[in-house]
Amino acid sequence: xxxxxxxxxxxxxxxxxxxxxxxxxxxxxxxxxxxxxxxxxxxxxxxxxxxxxxxxxxxxxxxxxxxxxxxxxxxxxxxxxxxxxxxxxxxxxxxxxxxxxxxxxxxxxxxxxxxxxxxxxxxxxxxxxxxxxxxxxxxxxxxxxxxxxxxxxxxxxxxxxxxxxxx
Length: 167
Ligand SMILES: CC(C)(COP(=O)(O)OP(=O)(O)OC[C@H]1O[C@@H](n2cnc3c(N)ncnc32)[C@H](O)[C@@H]1OP(=O)(O)O)[C@@H](O)C(=O)NCCC(=O)NCCS
Known about the structure:
Order of helices and strands: EEHHEEEHEHEE
Oligomer: single chain
Number of strands: 8
Radius of gyration: 15 Å
Structural class: alpha+beta
Bound molecules: coenzyme A
Number of helices: 4
């Protein structure tokens, strides 16, 4: 397990399981309040989406725990074939519970999938983010991503996976 130290206590990253899905549905719906156009229409839709992410991402479906609770998750495919970029670490989703945002949980989740991507020989990470999701866009930019294009209302962002310290 990878550990990070957020502003409050310790966050632990572990593989997500089917049993986590109900908690993640609630977390997802809350994290996307105000950004509904980029989230899912209902908890039912969110449950289907989360199950798809877990099936598709396998070892890249990770949850963050702090103070004994699930406070965030990330879903990334470590060997995704992009028609333009070739093989990439594709980050399909990341969400942190509103009460836990700004405490380093998102960064810890990203670090965990970067490690996974590196272990699979990936050098590039990529994602799609909603055009009007300004907060996430600036967050990704702060963490090293840059925008390379768009498709409709979705922005494409990429980042060279940073080499983990100590390697
Ligand atoms: C985007 C999201 C995952 C970020 O997670 P988070 O746990 O709040 O982020 P962190 O606390 O790990 O942020 C790490 C760093 O980014 C900074 N940061 C936080 N929000 C930022 C923003 N909007 N713009 C720039 N920097 C930001 C933090 O200050 C911190 O920097 P520091 O370590 O130098 O102090 C979270 O806000 C979220 O769940 N958003 C709703 C869902 C969403 O939009 N997901 C993206 C889908 S594409």
